[in-house]
UniProtKB/TrEMBL annotation:
Keywords linked to the UniProt accession: Transit peptide
PANTHER family per the UniProt record, alphabetical: TRANSFERASE CAF17, MITOCHONDRIAL-RELATED
Record flagged with keyword Cell inner membrane: no
Protein name per the record: Folate-binding protein
InterPro entries: GCVT_N (IPR006222), TrmE/GcvT-like (IPR027266), YgfZ/GCV_T_CS (IPR017703), YgfZ/GcvT (IPR045179)
Source organism phylogeny: Bacteria, Bacillati, Actinomycetota, Actinomycetes, Micrococcales
Record-linked NCBIfam families: ygfZ_signature
Provenance organism: Cellulomonas hominis
GO BP, sorted A to Z: iron-sulfur cluster assembly
Region (Disordered): 1-23
């Protein structure tokens, strides 16, 4: 689960010095995986009363009078008229439409704040794109830290900078591949990030503990995220990812804004349908008490029942969680053409394990508002049926 080689974190949270703290690894290195009782921690978070150390996330601040129109012009979301204290998210895409950076976005009226897992690279890219515009970009991760709360409210005037996760609400200009907003498993997940001065992180957490909220680790927050099918840049994104594959057009892409880098791919795949891959939730067989690592191969059943050998690789596990009610679950990105109604096999040390699929992005790869075809698809000049 957290078995990837651990890179040295940019910041080590002082909350790791708490008794019982077990460090997280991979993209969550620097904060606690849990504090000794992960099941109780997850239940507290699910009930809506807990605080999560998210100080490993990066923070980029953009200032200047051109900041919103500039960010609007170079990223995937409608930001030009973003009101203060209104949360959204945006993506930086490659010219081919692949996700390079993802950022939670909120403006406080004077600065635009971007919370990202790739803050140094994001800040460097933004700085290169400033040209002659009246904007300034700063990676302020050394000064600011995030804490997570199971609250859906936006920050009010006079309160700390707060980003309320819009997932899975389909934002204006967005579209969805998966379930309607009110039927989505993420509809009941409240989540926001509050920025506090990094030097005050421990005090901010203690203030919440004094009100009865326990401090919980990323074991809990990741289990709830996986249950909600919520994509995360540090887990679900690789060098080939396009937003359609993760149902990320709900919250991170505006389909009707002007041109930006990667916009051609966004429009083409939306209009034609069938992105190359699709996100899926896997319900893992926990009878053998085995869990795969992130990156484990997902295969079709093949001849597993007769020869013990699974079939071809159809995708990779991106996130693993031990959920207090669902049991072991995972998010995986698989080939769109893989059947949606069959069990699969996941590679694991100690033996492959079977898993049932829960569809996140449908196998037909068509969004709910894909433009209607103008007529039958034909080949050749003039569309002659024999050409």
């Amino acid at each position: 689960m957290d078995g990837e080689p651990q890179a040295a974190p940019r910041h080590r949270s002082p909350l790791l010095d708490r008794r019982g703290a077990v460090p997280a690894a991979g993209p969550d290195a620097g904060v606690a995986w849990h504090y000794g009782d992960p099941t109780a921690e997850q239940r507290a978070l699910t009930r809506g009363g807990a605080v999560v150390d998210q100080s490993h996330l990066g923070v980029v601040r953009v200032t200047g009078p051109d900041r919103l129109t500039w960010l609007h012009s170079i990223t995937s979301q409608q930001l030009a008229d973003l009101p203060p204290r209104t949360s959204t998210e945006t993506l930086v895409l490659s010219p081919q439409g692949h996700v390079e950076h993802a950022a939670a976005v909120v403006d406080d009226g004077a600065s635009t704040w971007l919370i990202s897992e790739t803050a140094p690279g994001l800040a460097a890219w933004l700085d290169r794109m400033r040209f002659m515009l009246r904007v300034e970009v700063a990676d302020v991760t050394d000064e600011w830290a995030a804490i997570g709360e199971p609250v859906s409210a936006e920050g009010a005037e006079g309160e700390p900078v707060t980003w309320a996760d819009p997932w899975p609400r389909t934002l204006p200009g967005g579209t969805r591949y998966g379930l309607p907003d009110d039927e989505h498993p993420g509809a009941d997940r409240a989540w926001r990030l509050v920025l506090v001065p990094r030097a005050d992180l421990a005090d901010a957490v203690r203030a919440r503990e004094a009100s009865g909220w326990p401090l919980v680790g990323t074991w809990a927050s990741e289990a709830v995220r996986v249950e909600a099918w919520r994509p995360r840049a540090g887990r679900e994104v690789d060098h080939r990812t396009i937003p359609h594959e993760l149902d990320w057009l709900r919250t991170a892409v505006h389909l009707h804004k002007g041109c930006y880098r990667g916009q051609e791919t966004i429009a083409r795949v939306h209009n034609m349908g069938r992105p190359p891959r699709r996100l899926v939730l896997l319900h893992l067989d926990g009878s053998g008490h085995l869990l795969p690592d992130t990156g484990a191969a997902v295969r079709d059943l093949g001849d597993l029942l007769t020869t013990g050998e699974p079939g071809r690789e159809i995708g990779r596990v991106t996130s693993i969680a031990r959920h207090h009610e669902l049991g072991p679950v995972a998010l995986a990105v698989v080939k769109r053409s893989a059947p949606v109604d069959v069990e699969v096999v996941v590679d694991c040390d100690g033996g492959a394990i079977t898993a049932g699929q829960e569809v996140v992005v449908p196998g037909d790869g068509v969004s709910v508002d894909r433009p209607a075809a103008h007529g039958p698809l034909t080949r050749g000049l003039g569309g002659h049926p024999m050409l």
